[in-house]
Specification:
Layout (H helix, E strand, L loop, with lengths): L1 H25 L2 H9 L3 H10 L2 H36 L5 H34 L1 H18 L1 H17 L12 H13 L5 H13 L4 H4 L1 E2 L6 E2 L4 H9 L5 E5 L5 E6 H6 L13 E4 L4 H10 L4 E5 L5 E6 H9 L12 E3 L5 E4 L4 H8 L5 H4 L5 H9 L8 E4 L2 E9 L2 E9 L4
Parallel strand pairs: 2-3, 5-6
Antiparallel strand pairs: 1-7, 3-4, 6-7, 8-9, 9-12, 10-11, 11-12
Helix pairs in contact: 1-4, 1-5, 1-6, 2-3, 2-8, 3-6, 4-5, 4-7, 5-6, 8-9, 13-14
GO molecular function: flavin adenine dinucleotide binding
Subcellular location: Cell membrane
Membrane topology: Multi-pass membrane protein
């Protein structure tokens, strides 16, 4: 009876060390860091333990090796001693009875050890490594201190041998974009950050690499003032627009500055060229953060986007940058954010409506990749049709149908958006 108890205890120890090994290896350090920073003491203890994998792996290996030695020394003989009398009673010879009892004993212990000492604990550890790690850490810390001399010997020997082959065991952990997004999702789910903070981080992460051409107001829909315009003509142009800042062009066709309408009306006696503010010049592929830094550094209110030939492609304001990072904001360019639901549940919009506004309003996140190539609804339809569109033409993308309702010569004026039923 004592022999069976000893074998069960040894297998239980094997279970423990296998559980510890896989649990501590599989646990997510990024998640532990978030929880530790949030005041979780168990996470902090586990993080300290797994921060030195050589040490805890050596501790686990010491435990598994000791258990294996004890099982080898006592397990087979104990089981053989229990089974040998049974086989002798079957009139087997002493040698045959001993050999058969030993084989069955070793085989039985090996089977039980593999099932209960290896496979089951490792499977459990993989199912919930965080919970297992929290349970294992206190006892593993104690065992590490008790077995410190052996652990130190194993760790030093391992590092020395790897050093002979110029293998560096100290590696800097590098976070990928996916790791960072995963940390944010985990922090939000665990209540460490509020929904608004989570959405802010998510939007900034998604929009950080947006180029100027994806957030700019295209030149085709920008009202440009001319430097030599009469005041009356300038006033009429401003009245026809929803913009608050206008690019100003000289007689050579170059954008030389920007006019804020408040300056224009507050200084009625000054000529237009005296009210012009400087602008920054941007490239089509300039990143959103670079644009923000440039406008702030140069103290300008507008960025003029030029292509590789120096031609005017569009404008970018701080409002565009903030909209790119946080989503569309109210107050400017209402024609670019026109979306009206019709009685038949379809939506009517302008060709110049930004895809980002459609995505946010209709909660269609799958549209985001299309924004990288096409800024507006019209741009998307033209890129799909690959010819000058005509009224009545349709484009269906992901069970969403865009129908061109009205054209203004070659320009898409109105588009109807309908949800297509899946068949």
């Amino acid at each position: 009876m004592l022999s069976i108890i000893i074998i069960i205890v040894l297998i239980a120890f094997n279970f423990y060390f296998s559980l510890a090994e896989i649990g501590l290896i599989s646990v997510d350090k990024a998640t532990l860091k978030i929880q530790a920073d949030g005041g979780n003491n168990r996470a902090a203890s586990t993080l300290r333990l797994v921060s030195d994998p050589d040490e805890f792996l050596s501790a686990v290996q010491v435990g598994i090796t000791l258990v294996g030695i004890l099982e080898g020394l006592y397990g087979g003989d104990m089981m053989a001693a229990l089974l040998e009398p049974v086989f002798r009673s079957w009139h087997m010879g002493n040698y045959g009875a001993h050999l058969l009892a030993l084989l069955i004993g070793v085989g039985s212990i090996t089977y039980l050890t593999i099932i209960f000492g290896e496979l089951i604990p490792k499977t459990l550890a993989l199912l919930d490594p965080e919970k297992i790690s929290f349970l294992i850490t206190p006892s593993m810390i104690i065992f590490s201190k008790v077995a410190y001399p052996f652990i130190k010997l194993l760790t030093s020997s391992t590092k020395y041998i790897l050093g002979l082959f110029h293998i560096n065991t100290i590696q800097e952990q590098k976070l990928t974009d996916n790791d960072l997004r995963g940390m944010l999702v985990m922090a939000y789910k665990q209540g460490l950050i509020e929904k608004g903070e989570f959405m802010l981080h998510k939007n900034i992460s998604a929009a950080y690499d947006l180029p100027a051409e994806n957030i700019m107001t295209p030149a085709s829909i920008v009202m440009v003032l001319k430097e030599d315009m009469a005041r009356e003509e300038t006033t009429e142009t401003i009245k026809r627009s929803t913009h608050r800042t206008f690019p100003v062009m000289n007689s050579g066709g170059e954008i030389i500055g920007a006019l804020m309408i408040k300056d224009f009306f507050l200084e009625p006696d000054k000529p237009l060229h005296a009210l012009i503010s400087p602008v920054s010049y941007l490239s089509l592929n300039q990143g959103i953060f670079d644009m923000f830094q440039l406008l702030r550094r140069e103290s300008t209110i507008m960025g003029v986007v030029l292509n590789e030939y120096g031609e005017f492609e569009g404008i970018v304001t701080f409002h565009d940058i903030v909209s790119g990072l946080l989503g569309n904001l109210p107050g400017y360019n209402t024609k670019e954010r026109f979306l009206e639901q019709q009685p038949d549940k379809s939506w009517l919009t302008n060709g110049i409506t930004r895809l980002s506004f459609i995505r946010e309003t209709l909660n269609m996140e799958w549209l985001r990749p299309y924004e990288e190539e096409d800024i507006t609804v019209a741009g998307l339809l033209i890129s799909k049709l690959k010819h000058i569109p005509q009224s009545g033409e349709k484009v269906t993308i992901n069970q969403l149908t865009f129908e061109i309702k009205r054209m203004d010569r070659h320009r898409i004026e109105e588009v109807v958006i309908r949800q297509t039923s899946s068949t």
